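Tokens for Glucose-6-phosphate isomerase. Go.
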Amino acid sequence: MASLSTLYSSSPSLKQSTVKAFTSPPTTRGDSFSFPHTSKPTTHLPLTLSASRSDTSHSDAASAAAKKELIKDPDALWKRYLDWLYQQKDIGLYLDVSRVGFTDEFVVDMEERFKSAFKAMEELEKGSIANPDEGRMVGHYWLRNSGLAPRPGLKTLIENTLDSICSFADDIVSGKIKPPSSPAGRFTQILSVGIGGSALGPQFVAEALAPDNPPLKIRFIDNTDPAGIDHQIAQLGPELASTLVIVISKSGGTPETRNGLLEVQKAFRDAGLNFAKQGVAITQENSLLDNTARIEGWLARFPMYDWVGGRTSVMSAVGLLPAALQGIDIREMLAGAAIMDEATRTNSLKNNPAALLAMCWYWASDGVGSKDMVILPYKDSLLLFSRYLQQLVMESLGKEFDLDGNTVNQGLTVYGNKGSTDQHAYIQQLREGVHNFFATFIEVLRDRPPGHDWDLEPGVTCGDYLFGMLQGTRSALYANGRESISVTIEEVTPRSVGALIALYERAVGLYASLVNINAYHQPGVEAGKKAAAEVLALQKRVLSVLNEASCKDPVEPLTLDEIADRCHAPEEIEMIYKIIAHMSANDRVLIAEGSCGSPRSVKVFLGECNVDDMYA
Ligand SMILES: O=P(O)(O)OC[C@H]1O[C@H](O)[C@H](O)[C@@H](O)[C@@H]1O
């Protein structure tokens, strides 16, 4: 059967009433046609919505009304599909934006914004300080085309790191490098310790591309949840002895990752194993983690760079080393990304899939994030794509200020899991409920490897159902005025996954320029880290107050008010109550018998005392 790209081999005649095997859309792509039913007064385009929400009430209604106007005529819809269909044949990736209602006028009005977005992106790739708030370059595109790096030293660094990743992974998989005391005589497991961009990329890639029986099976500790950590270590059991622990942290100081490391090192001690012989660090040079790994003599260390953000680090050692250890062809992943990078360098909007995505996002969410982005891959292996995009999109675009210092509270909310599964969960609301989203379908044409398929009923396979559910949902949503984008890949391969990642990295970057924000910093995250540190500091004060009281004879139980007063933090009494409730649930403080139960009257003392002392 011809592949999709063959079907697109030459331009179809739109006059054909029955398309035998339609081929590539009209090559003269400049002839965009005026969309029936969707022409509307240009004064009410969503563009005016980008200034601020308050200016949008009048045009909001008009643009919403315009958006509701559907193309009902099948011929017109088919023509729109063909006219706007983007295809990247080397990858086997197709982008259909025909079910997004942008108008001709809107496209024309966006041209100026795109001109500056393309220019900014060109400068970024040349090494400009594209992250002005942190004074950094943005270089994730150089990871898949080292020739783009603005300095020879960076080119060499990128190439040498890739080579060392490949040779290290080969040595581990072949057993040339083996754990010191493992019955298996080789590494069989990977335990990845990292969070955010130091986890989500490797998790997405593993779920999408790991073979059924990988040379090393990967699992993740991506949180500071002791029960979660215990669960992963318990599942490893004796295989801890053949586990390669990869600790990933660009900053080298993220608390959750540091806690995960300490917990895992304790598990190694308890098992009589030498962690350093099985530990690998992926972090910035001279970070706390890097220095720890160097001083303790860990098995290996791989660099992260300040010009690669966490959410765009999957094509660095962060994603490449775990992938290579699972037998995934990382050079194919890089190749797919490089091809997509080249495809998204063109300044021709209609021939730039990332620009088309950014334009659709802007149209659908009025350039202010007024609608959520629902990601619906109809493929189990792409389940984590939405979680990956949550960080890539929301940590990049969810910003309080624009580049001129205006308060914009920008963003695009991302959610979704997979189809058709989600049709049995929340698609009901998408179909009929509050219209606060636009959908993105990720379609994979290849259902099973050749020769593995069968008809579960005459002429119908399992994959046909999946295909039908996707197309049916897309039609049903559109019939009710709900817009959708469809990204189609022929199959899930390292090359197509690399391309998908690159497509969305570029789309986020272009969209950020359209709405004039810095996509490459994350000030809000620092605020969260600081607040967490303050809670822990208060807890330490509470513990020292309780410690002092519990050393008295007899032990002096304290009320919450007394604790807050002695912590010199009466205004923090609620947090103190929560701290004590959490410690009490973990047997670290005791609530005195007889307390009438209301938070105010709670009498508390440190867990090591016992109640008898209390009433001695
Ligand atoms: O890789 P690390 O330095 O440990 O950072 C892990 C994560 O921490 C923060 O949440 C940042 O906002 C993320 O972008 C980053 O991926």
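The chain has three domains: 75-126+333-373+380-414+445-465+490-520, 142-328, 524-613.
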